[in-house]
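A note from the maintainers: we've had questions about how concatenated examples are separated. There is no special marker in the raw files; a new sequence line simply starts the next protein. For clarity in this README we add a label.
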Amino acid sequence: MLIDLHTHTNASDGTDTPSGLIDKAIAAGIGVLALTDHDTTRGWQEASSALLNHPSKSQLQLVLGSEISCQDEEGLSIHMLGLLFDSSHQALIDELDKTREHRLFRMEKIITRLNEAGIEISLDEVYAMRTGDATLGRPHLADALVAKGHVASRQEAFETFLHNKSKYYVNHYSPTPEAAIKLIKQAGGVAVIAHPFASKRGKTLKIEAFDNLIAAGLDGIEVDHPDHSDSEKAELVSLAIARNLVITGSSDYHGDGKLNRLAQFTTNPEQWAHLESKANERRVVKR
């Protein structure tokens, strides 16, 4: 069974609609798919409806979640996948809303830095790149830079202007990873840290930091990810085994926004079963 536990739609910075993602997952023969848009649950209803009303006889199981933006006390960006949580848990939803709101202030600062360097781009042009009230992110700015002719692709925009080490990069408010884990757990879900050792993205989490995450209730580590090297994967597998954490794999699919393919990396069914058992209720959407 193909199990992909990290994907995005145009409810955040992906390019597929939630229903379009369901169509592609079914066509690809995926058995379990997690929808994890950045700091939002806004694609959940459309994706669930698309699956439940799909004309095929697919037995796809849909895992609803969110990739929650976090940062530690030193300002290091850390992403936490919250899966299978209760979307009526107001404290968690309020935190997601607060994080999305601060993304706007961050975008304004990045645009100001670009303009000061002679790279003309406006907030309205960035807004034009997102769908409705999708979670605003750097990929939307990348698309605006492409449309303006400053770069040829999203990838070039990130490599040139928008990577974490860039002089234009700006952090935004987000909870600590420990706080995010606790909120996910309080909402009955499970917490998996996303791509923690992806060094080409910038600074990475130190292995010593996992002590506090585990104490907060961390359930798993996303090991098999397109941005992890073989050595990074090996170190994370050793850590997961030593600390009794679930090992996951996923594509981090963004549609046309990234080169990542659906089910490019996957999760072992036994690991998924163990992870799902840690939620306080069975919340997988299936027919």
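[label: protein 2]
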Amino acid sequence: MKLRPHDLARRLADRAETVCCDYLSNGRRQGNYWLVGDVRNMPSRSMFVRLKDTAKGTAGKWTDAATGEHGDLLDVIRESRGLVDFKDVVEEARRFLSVPHPVFGLMRTPAGRRPEVVVGSPEAARRLFAMSQPIQETVAEAYLRERGTSDLRETGSLRFHPRCYYRPDEHSPTEIWPAMIAAVTDLDDSVKGVHRTWLDPDRQTKAPIETPRRAMGELLGNAVRFGET
């Protein structure tokens, strides 16, 4: 059975409210819409997801009135779970729908979706950094303070992702851990890569995994920069 992204998106749209309850749990239903802060599941009401097909649009389509972002439920899965590799989005959608593993041919990017990016590329690193949040009052801040870093005023290059995916190897299941995301930039302050440090949410240390630190992107000649330059 061959399923393309459009087919998965349509199946997700048939269960739009269930998808929203699971991936956008900080929102709530209002009429034929699900209201939430944004596609990353922040609380508020600026983003709305259509739960049923209407004359105004199809189920599963969403728009963030605050940012102008829009997309489908595959985007919701990607952003709310912090996924970078599109094959992980497909796998998560398949898991949610309990669909048998499909054999994919050429995947076209649906309208309204961001194009796929190469795993580990600078663009993938930029997306991960963009979907992360400031470190203040997070596990990442507690981890740094435990290591003796008390002055965190000039740490804009560090961010926190509460659900960063970690896969020990290509044959192992994906795990979810909080992570500190450090931007690797060039001299023009352009993000070329990131360092990920997965963290233990309870002990203010690195996560108890085989490789709790990994890098992605273009690192040669670039660096994680702190303070004023």
